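A reminder from the course coordinator: this example appears on the midterm review sheet, so study it carefully.

Given structure:
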């Protein structure tokens, strides 16, 4: 839906204190612009676990694969993604215990798009970083579906 414009921002646009997404093309706002700004804000405000994992994934350190962080896929922003391997890696904090149905719907949508989804808890990434990276590497070595 690239280029589609709506008259009002998505409900969560103000959560990160982001602008309404006005594109300058009249009275319309663009949901994709708001999402890109939100992804940028999430990269800047990364959790300790996301930062620790990113240090191990960036610059093609893992099997020479390019991973991106806080990437927009459809209407979702994923923590990490390897586009060529169709792999999404999510790092979750305790707030995800309360949004299980949202996360399930998001996972189902990503899987319908052909992505494999790995989820790790913040404390798991921080306490067992090597094991988490090894799990990601094992999945990256498997052919994408």
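Designed residues:
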């Amino acid at each position: 839906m690239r280029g589609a414009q709506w008259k009002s921002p998505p409900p969560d646009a103000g959560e990160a204190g982001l602008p309404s997404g006005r594109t300058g093309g009249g009275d319309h706002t663009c949901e994709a612009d708001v999402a890109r700004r939100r992804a940028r804000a999430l990269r800047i405000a990364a959790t300790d676990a996301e930062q620790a994992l990113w240090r191990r994934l960036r610059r093609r350190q893992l099997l020479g694969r390019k991973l991106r962080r806080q990437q927009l896929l459809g209407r979702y922003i994923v923590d990490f993604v390897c586009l060529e391997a169709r792999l999404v890696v999510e790092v979750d904090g305790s707030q995800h215990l309360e949004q299980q149905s949202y996360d399930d719907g998001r996972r189902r949508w990503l899987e319908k798009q052909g992505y494999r989804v790995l989820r790790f808890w913040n404390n798991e990434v921080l306490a067992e970083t090597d094991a988490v990276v090894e799990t990601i590497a094992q999945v990256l070595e498997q052919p994408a579906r």
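Confidence is low (pLDDT under 50) at residues 1-28. The two ends are 24 Å apart (CA to CA).
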